[in-house]
Amino acid sequence: MPPTSRLCLLEGVDSVSVRNLRLDLIVGKDAWGREGKPQPVVASAWLYLSNAIKEASRTDDVTKGVDYSKLCKSIVSTLKSQNEYSDIFAIAAQISSSELLGIWQPGAEHRIAGSRIEASLPKGVLRSSSGLRYAMSCERDEEGNLFIMQSIEINDIACACIIGINPHERLEKQPVSISLFFRYPATLMKDLQSISDSNPVQKMLPCFQEMVKTVAERIEVSAYQTVEALATFVAQIVTMQYMIPEVTVKVEKPFAIMSIDCPVIEITRTRDFFQNTNFWGGAPA
After folding, report:
1. Can you tell me the distance from the alpha carbon of 218 to that of 233, in angstroms, rounded to the nearest whole number?
2. Cβ atoms of residues 251 and 177 within 8 Å
3. Of 135, 154, 169, 259, nearest to 212 (Cα)?
C-alpha cells in the first residue's frame, strides 16, 4: 500500500513512485558511533501528479507520462553529489531538491501537487533489525502554501524479558520486539530551508541511539505481567526521560500463542499523560 497522503484522496491526483533505491553513503555517525563510515541507505520517492497519468493513459503515449528511469537517475545523482550527510533528514532534504521532485509551479508540464520522501538507515541503530526510517511529505495547496509533514520510525528493537501471567513465563525470559513511531503534524513553511532552520526532528536524531539502548536495558530487567503495562513503561521512558512530546509504541510477543505469528499491542502516549496524572500509583516495576 502507498503511504497515506491527503493528496491521494483528491480527485484527479495520481501518484508515481520509485522504491528502495540502495546506496552506501556517509551519514553522520554509524551505529557504532564512528564518523566517516559509509552505511547502507534506502530511499523511496512518491510524486503526486495532477495530470500526467491521466494524459498518458488516454493517449497510451510514454512521452506523456513520468520517466521513472530519469526519476531514479535524478535521485541517485543528487545523493551522490554530496560526499557526506549530517543525518537522515539531510538525505531526505537532498532528495527533495532533485529537479524532478520540486513542488509544482503553475504552468509546469507535469503539475506535481506534492511529494513524499522516505529515507532509511537499515543498519543505523544497534538492537534494531530494521534500523531508522524517516519520512517527509511536502504538499502545496492551490494558494501556494507549502505544508511539511514528518515522521520517524525505529522498528524491531530486540529485547528479552520476563513477561506474562503463566507460571512458565515467570521462570524464563522470552523475546519481545519493540517499535517506536514519532509523528509530527503538518507545518506551514515558506520553503524547505525554513524547516531546516528549526526542525524538531533534527533535534531528536542525536538521542536515538542512547534512547534505544536505554529502552532495551530497562525492558530486560523488567518483569511485567501484561504487554499493555510494558508498552506504557516504554512510552514513559521515551517521553519523560528524552522530553519527547508524543510516541507510539508497538510491542510484539512472538511466543505468546503458538498458532499465530504474535499478538501485538500498539499505544500512543504523550508527555502530558505522564506529567499530569499519577498513572502508576507508585513506581513501575
Report:
1. 9
2. yes
3. 154
Q: pLDDT truncated to tens, each residue of the chain (285 aa)?
A: 344 555 554 555 778 889 999 999 999 999 999 999 999 999 999 888 766 677 778 888 877 777 788 888 889 999 999 989 999 999 998 888 775 555 444 444 556 678 889 999 999 999 999 999 999 988 776 676 778 889 999 999 999 999 999 999 999 999 999 999 999 877 776 656 666 566 778 778 889 999 999 999 999 999 999 999 999 999 999 999 999 999 999 999 998 888 888 889 999 999 999 987 766 654 444
Helix 227-236 to helix 208-220 angle (10° resolution) is 140
- Rounded CA separation 221/224 (Å): 10
Closest CA to 41 of 103, 89, 98: 89
Max distance between CA atoms of the chain, in angstroms, equals 69
Q: What is the pTM of this model?
A: 0.85
Distance CA 179, CA 184 (A): 17
Q: If 0-12 CB within 10 Å is exposed, 13-18 middle and 19+ buried, where does residue 142 land?
A: exposed
d(CA 38, CA 138): 28
Would you list the DSSP string of 137-165? EEEE-TT--EEEEEEEEEEEEEEEEEE-S
